[in-house]
Amino acid sequence: MERLRSHQEFVAVLQRRRNKVSSHDLVMHYRMRPTHPQLQADAPARRLGLAVSKSVGNAVVRNAVKRRFRVLARTYEDVLPLGCDVVMRAKPSAAHASFQSLDLQVHKLFKAIAQQMEQQ
Predict the structure, then answer these.
(1) 18-34 pLDDT tens trace
(2) Which helix (H) or strand (E) is 110 found in, with range?
(3) What confidence tens digit (pLDDT) does each residue in 98-118 have?
(4) Torsion sign across C-alpha atoms 41, 6, 21, 25
(5) Is 42 helix (H, G, I), strand (E, B) or coil?
(6) Structural contact between residues 27 and 69, judged by C-beta atoms closer than 8 angstroms
(7) Residue 86 phi, psi dihedral angles, 5° rounding
(8) What is the model's pTM?
(9) Residue-wise over 42-66: b if at least 16 C-beta within 10 A, else e?
(10) Is residue 10 a contact partner of residue 50, using CB atoms and an 8 Å limit?
(11) Where are the alpha helices (DSSP H) in 21-98?
């Protein structure tokens, strides 16, 4: 997955407050980009942004949580529809969650996003 890099890209996803799913340790905000990536050869299929605040822990803990999120997002990215932008926001409990628990939550939430996108 490509990454959301600019503040504007994050804001574009987070503006759609109703487009979110959550679990015990994380919240995912999502949106479909206006232009479909298959129309533009160089556009990334799916993009991911990470939001891990200081309430999760110190820098070492936050970076560990981000590494876990990146691995899990790469594992399940094919579940998401093309042209989808996702911001994964860690809750403070994510710092102490097991990898298996986060794995199940990410898979479940990616499937929920895909289902909600189909309905729209």
Answers:
(1) 899 999 999 999 998 87
(2) helix 99-119
(3) 999 999 999 999 999 999 988
(4) positive
(5) coil
(6) no
(7) -130, 135
(8) 0.88
(9) eebbbbbbbbbeeebbeeebbeebb
(10) no
(11) 59-76
